[in-house]
């Protein structure tokens, strides 16, 4: 997702759900500012998690990887406007401000808000008002045309990766689990490449045969690695492919699709979708090593360019290994 220009605290708060993909609840949001007023990366963390003693330093270190010019801090909490304590979590804000200053990052603005929906209340130390409707922004309109959805909560976003029809997903188990169902190397690569080619043309899998063929293709490590490389090359077109496959396959087969959806989401600026996709992969196949490695990378706020280079390096290593064999 491209950097977004915001003017003032109210506009920043209204932009948060558009950039995250959902309306957050009782959380801390850090926005990196580049140039005059462009918000690039967002870090989102539960407010209680952010209050841990070491959390502020970890958050600043993670954000610093994206080399922000300045920092915006938003405290989203419906308890913000308790008359006895109008701006909560001041100790957390102070720790973040100090940590940012030590890292050479200026905190441009801190804003407290009761929520991110239309008519929620926001305030700074010297101003206050109501949040404008996030749906009315030019950003929201342009992303809606592109098919972007803003969910009412993180739970709703996570639910969007679950099967529309659990019985249909479960019915594919016999086809996926047949002893003779495994594809050889060439068949796996062909299945993956064909599905991705069709996705770039706007055609997603629709039939049981489509879903099963692609699920089998990803079972083969070479098919999975091919999908990973092609996802990095075209994350925008492949994201919906892997989301649709995650929703269509039962566990444990959906784990590999969910990991690919996470990579595509992360590379297109949808960190929250990447996060819930990895959670879906973990539920489907807890021992899946690639999901654990990506979780560690995402938790450390790896820059998308670093992720691309890492996957490209893995691709070259695999190619060299094949040549040696």
Describe the structure.
- There is one protein chain.
- The chain has two domains: 4-156, Cytidine Deaminase, domain 2 (3-Layer(aba) Sandwich), CATH 3.40.140; 162-324, no CATH class.
- Helix 3 packs across helix 4 and helix 11 (221-233) runs antiparallel to helix 16.
- A hairpin with a 4-residue loop joins strand 6 and strand 7.
- With 325 residues, the protein is of the alpha+beta class.
- It has a seven-stranded mixed β-sheet, with helices on both faces.
- The protein has helices spanning 9-20, 47-50, 55-64, 90-102, 138-145, 154-159, 166-171, 173-176, 185-200, 208-219, 221-233, 235-248, 254-267, 271-284, 289-299, 304-324; strands at residues 4-5, 27-34, 38-46, 70-76, 106-113, 121-123, 128-130.
- Helices cover 55% and strands 12% of the residues.
- This is DUF4192 domain-containing protein.
- Residues 161-181 are annotated as: Disordered.
- It comes from Saccharomonospora amisosensis.
What secondary-structure arrangement, pairings included, does this model have?
Elements (H helix, E strand, L loop, with lengths): L3 E2 L3 H12 L6 E8 L3 E9 H4 L4 H10 L5 E7 L13 H13 L3 E8 L7 E3 L4 E3 L7 H8 L8 H6 L6 H6 L1 H4 L8 H16 L7 H12 L1 H13 L1 H14 L5 H14 L3 H14 L4 H11 L4 H21 L1
Parallel strand pairs: 4-5
Antiparallel strand pairs: 1-3, 2-3, 2-4, 5-6, 6-7
Protein name: DUF4192 domain-containing protein
InterPro entries: DUF4192
Organism: Saccharomonospora amisosensis
The backbone outline, from C-alpha atoms, is: elongated
The proportion of residues forming helix, as a percent range, comes to: 40-55%
Secondary-structure element series: EHEEHHEHEEEHHHHHHHHHHHH
Mean pLDDT: 84
User: Given the structure, what is the number of helices?
Assistant: 16
Q: What does the radius of gyration come to?
A: 21 Å
The biggest beta sheet is recorded as:
7 strands, mixed
| Total domain units | 2
Fraction of residues in β-strands: 5-15%
Number of strands: 7
Structural class: alpha+beta
């Amino acid at each position: 997702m491209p950097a977004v220009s915001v003017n003032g605290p109210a506009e920043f708060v209204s932009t948060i759900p558009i950039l995250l993909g959902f309306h957050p609840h009782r959380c801390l949001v850090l926005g990196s500012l580049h140039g005059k007023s462009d918000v690039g990366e967002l870090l989102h963390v539960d407010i209680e998690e952010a209050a841990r003693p070491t959390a502020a330093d970890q958050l600043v270190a993670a954000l610093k990887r994206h080399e922000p010019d300045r920092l915006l801090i938003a405290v989203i909490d419906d308890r913000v406007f308790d008359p006895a304590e109008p701006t909560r979590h001041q100790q957390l804000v102070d720790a973040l401000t100090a940590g940012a200053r030590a890292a050479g990052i200026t905190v441009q603005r801190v804003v407290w808000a009761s929520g991110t929906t239309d008519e929620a209340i926001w305030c700074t130390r010297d101003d206050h008002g109501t949040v404008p409707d996030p749906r009315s922004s030019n950003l929201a309109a342009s992303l809606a045309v592109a098919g972007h959805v803003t969910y009412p909560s993180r739970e709703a976003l996570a639910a969007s990766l679950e099967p529309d029809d659990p019985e249909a997903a479960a019915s594919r188990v016999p086809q996926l689990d047949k002893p003779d169902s495994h594809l050889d190397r060439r068949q796996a690569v062909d299945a993956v490449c064909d599905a991705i080619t069709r996705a770039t043309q706007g055609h997603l899998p629709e039939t049981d045969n489509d879903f099963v063929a692609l699920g089998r293709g990803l079972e083969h490590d070479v098919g999975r690695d091919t999908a990973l490389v092609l996802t990095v090359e075209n994350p925008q077109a492949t994201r919906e492919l892997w989301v649709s496959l995650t929703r269509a396959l039962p566990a444990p087969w959906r784990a590999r699709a969910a990991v690919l959806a996470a990579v595509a989401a992360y590379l297109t600026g949808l960190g929250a979708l990447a996060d819930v996709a990895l959670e879906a992969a973990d539920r489907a196949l807890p021992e899946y090593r690639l999901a654990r490695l990506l979780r560690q990378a995402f938790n450390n706020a790896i820059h998308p360019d670093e992720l691309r280079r890492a996957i490209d390096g893995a691709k070259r290593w695999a190619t060299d290994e094949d040549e040696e064999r």
